[in-house]
Amino acid sequence: MKHCRLPTTILAGMASLLGTGAATAAPAPVTLTIHADTPGAVINPAIYGQFAEHLGRLIYEGIWVGEGSAIPNTRGYRNDVVIALKELGVPVLRWPGGCFADEYHWREGVGPRESRPRKVNTNWGGVVEDNSFGTHEFMDFAELIGADAYVNGNVGTGTPQEMADWLEYMTSDTDSTLAQLRRKNGRDKPWKVKYFAVGNETWGCGGNMRPEYYADLYRHYVTFLKTPEGNKPLRIASGSNGSGLQWTEVLMREAAKYMDAISVHYYTLPTGKWDVKGAATNFTEKEWWATINRTLRMSQILIDHSKIMDKYDPEKRVGLYVDEWGTWYDTEPGSNPGFLYQQNTLRDAMVAAVNLNIFHGHADRVRMTNIAQMVNVLQAMILTDKEKMLLTPTYHVFHMYKPFRGATALPVSASANLAEAAEGALLSVSAARGTDGRLHIAVANTDPRETQHVTFKVTGMVPRGFSGQILTATEMDAHNTFARREAVKPAAFNSARVQQGVVQFDVPTKSIIVLSETGK
Ligand code: AHR
Prior knowledge:
Elements: E1 3-6, E2 10-12, H1 14-17, E3 30-35, E4 49-51, E5 73-74, E6 77-78, H2 79-88, E7 92-95, E8 119-120, E9 128-129, H3 135-145, E10 148-153, H4 160-171, H5 177-184, E11 195-198, H6 211-223, E12 234-241, H7 245-255, E13 261-268, H8 285-295, H9 297-312, E14 319-327, H10 346-361, E15 368-372, E16 382-385, E17 388-391, H11 393-400, E18 408-410, E19 412-415, H12 418-421, E20 426-433, E21 439-445, E22 452-459, E23 466-471, E24 491-493, E25 497-499, E26 502-507, E27 511-517
Parallel strand pairs: 3-22, 4-7, 4-15, 7-10, 10-11, 11-12, 12-13, 13-14, 14-15
Antiparallel strand pairs: 1-19, 2-20, 3-19, 5-6, 8-9, 16-17, 18-20, 20-21, 21-27, 22-26, 23-24, 23-27, 25-26
The protein binds alpha-L-arabinofuranose.
Alpha-L-arabinofuranose (AHR) binds next to loops.
């Protein structure tokens, strides 16, 4: 049998790629091979990172309700959200934006809350930002949920001095005036700032710059980011939107040696159009396929940007961080259009699984990603309505995929008959070996009509029994509401059969299965 080794384990039948819908005949079994004898890169846990911008009801209500709130809270952070995030584990959290970052002046968010200035959030709904959630509140929150801090600096309306001062304020253990001010404001020990970005979308809301201009600005600003030994952030250059290859080319050519990573942003819009993006619920099967096919573009984006990076950085020292990704729909009717609030369905769960599988396949270069965004904005993990809270299908996928964090990605190849076997369907697969030696397998069947019968052969190890979870529902747009908070949630999956080293199971329509070896 002929095998084709796939760098990312996306396996597609032509019909689905063309968005024409379901197959006419029941699909034949799909045979896949997991190459445990040729392991790939370690999947950096930061691939499971999140993003929290001052946008809509994310920070205010979604995370921060203030100490005086009737909503149960710990030092102002709502308890239900904190508990859910701790259970999930958030390896890294990016803040304060997004577009907001390039209008954010950190001094306005420190000191007594009652004297912090009130500003218009010009990017998101024109509402008043009272700065009650600032540096101390963010860093304390990151510590509370156990996330590494990723702080995004202001290039658009800031100065190199302001940026350098912010880092000194956060990280200095001297008795400098800025370190003393931090202590006066309630924090004695310096914080660890693991990641720091110089601007956001500087080609757009961050200043409408040309790459040559930003490359010089990046070199300029980054020169003055000085922190104590042992507390040096990884320095991130503002990268392109998905298709902006020239941006990556210029930045890598002119500034690679001054950066530890460059970012890239890519959002999945069902229609691909910003004026009418498509609805979050009540969509057709055609829109389902359009969404899946658009999200698959992430794979080619990573291939294209990595190729450019390989030219300037063959050792792969510089990371490619997808620090904004996820679905972006028309906002929910009745909500403030500037707040980017959208429902989250089984389709979003599928998008999450497909993207995580793609990221695993690029783990050598992609060492961080941040889904946009954490609560109440775009493809959120959590939705709130005042005192009420629910976990979205996307949250459940991130939770199911936990065994992949820190595991070693394993290549998966498909038999030559796959395209025929899976015609009209699309499977997205990844496999990895945990630090304890156990094999983990994730399979997403994006076909809303046909069950897929999969067989995994494994080279280089003999798999034992498996158990895990499945996430699925009857409707494509199944979602959780405040009245039915658990309409979509994972169930136990123990139907994988292992015989003579071969693992077999059925993957029902529009379902995601994550399995871990039990050793039995
Ligand atoms: O995530 C919402 C916005 O999308 C961010 O503020 C911006 O960086 C991107 O365009």
